[in-house]
Amino acid sequence: MTTVIKIGGSLEADPHRRRALLEAIADGAHGRCIVVPGGGTFANAVRAAQMRERFGDAEAHRRALDAMSDAAGIFRGIEPRLVQSLEPWTETAPARLRVWNPRALRAGHPDIPETWDVTSDSLALWLATQIRAERCVLVKSVDAPPGLDPAALARDGTVDAAFPGFAAAFEGAIEIWGPHRWVAVETRAAA
């Protein structure tokens, strides 16, 4: 089973949890995994720059992808056994040792709107769909309310606005791991 695990940028505030999770992934504790990094403070800097410089959402999206790429490098620095990969579905490294670098999406992709509606949450689901992963996990700094579907999670602000559309295309299980509990997301497949 392959799992896409998105580690939110907000976990920068909990470096011990982030390090422990990256070490566990490298140790194989979660099976075959591909890690998707959140943009964290790098993405926040893009938001601030967009407000200050007034560039468009497409440019902000590309810069946010760069922010995720920077975070991928930090993850690799924290856990050197992880290998950065632009294309995690190739066989150049064991799947459980990959950190996805989304820089290749900078040129655009027809399935991915270039707006702030799409964050690393939706990109993790998009990637999970592309590689036919059986599970997509979002690791967050807050616990998700149980029993919510993707649309309710987007309205709640737990995930981004595009998440429900990407969730509808994903056939696997979706989980949200907060600091105190994990929650299975109610999807059409689970109903």
From TrEMBL:
Keywords: Kinase, Transferase. It comes from the Bacteria. Pfam families: AA_kinase (PF00696). SUPFAM superfamilies: Carbamate kinase-like (SSF53633). One of its GO terms (molecular function) is kinase activity. Gene3D superfamilies: Acetylglutamate kinase-like. Transmembrane segments: none annotated. Residues 1-57 form the Aspartate/glutamate/uridylate kinase domain. InterPro entries: AceGlu_kinase-like_sf (IPR036393), Asp/Glu/Uridylate_kinase (IPR001048). This is Uridylate kinase. It comes from Methylobacterium oryzae.
